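User: Structure please.
Assistant: Input sequence and predicted structure:
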Amino acid sequence: MKLVTWNTQWCRGLDGQVRPERIVQVARALADFDVLCLQEVADGYPRLPGDASADQFARLAQLLPGFRVIPGPSVEEWDEQGRRSRFGNLLATRLPITQVRHHALPWPPDPGQESMPRSCVSVTLRDPQLGAVRVMTTHLEYYSQRQRAAQAQALRELHREACAVAAAPPEAVDDGAPPLVKLYTDRAILCGDFNLQAQDPEYAALTGTGPAPWHDSWRLLHGDAPHPPTFKLYDQRYGKEPVACDFVFVSEALKDRVRSLSVDGATQASDHQPVFVEIG
């Protein structure tokens, strides 16, 4: 499985232009991907810099023929005129899909701190080499450490629960009622913009000891070598020091199957750098 994950900043490059076409073009140049996971996709936000009023979920689907596109907005709101706005995640794949789940992540109060709701979209795929795989993509809170910590813990718990269900699945009743597809798996990939670094306690919450740990693909391949930066490499409005905050984690069942991971450190089509991983 070839996967690209990227925070697109509503498809806005550092030249100020909002161009979904460029996002797909850069991603395709990085890899002939089976799965594309994007964060910060927008629909109906004309006041965002560059104008994100167009439906980027629909436009990206048009640009990806042969792919099923699953919108996973964390924010969906309606104004007084009945106009809808959405903002959040998207997962596109050319592999067969068996199940989609949308998880709202914790949003505990943090008075006086800017924040927004966060979520994770989870899609179970059939990969010809790996079999059934849950691919989960998310974008954790940037400003509130309290909320980010709760969200990291929730992602660990979601995986623990899914592994437990795979080990002891519910009774399979073939009566046409949901779920029609009785497919559960402990093989999983978790990717996205986590707004944390490898030395942070939230990273330890995801990867530390205990049931159902997540494994950092970069560290599986390169040990303690520093992650290549994925944020603030060119745009330093949020700080002068480039950091790695976009990760691809895998489950225990896939930790020996990670073949390669690379970061496109050249593109300026977003304020983040896309990450490519191959698992097989």
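The domain at 2-279 is CATH 3.60.10.10 (Deoxyribonuclease I; Chain A).
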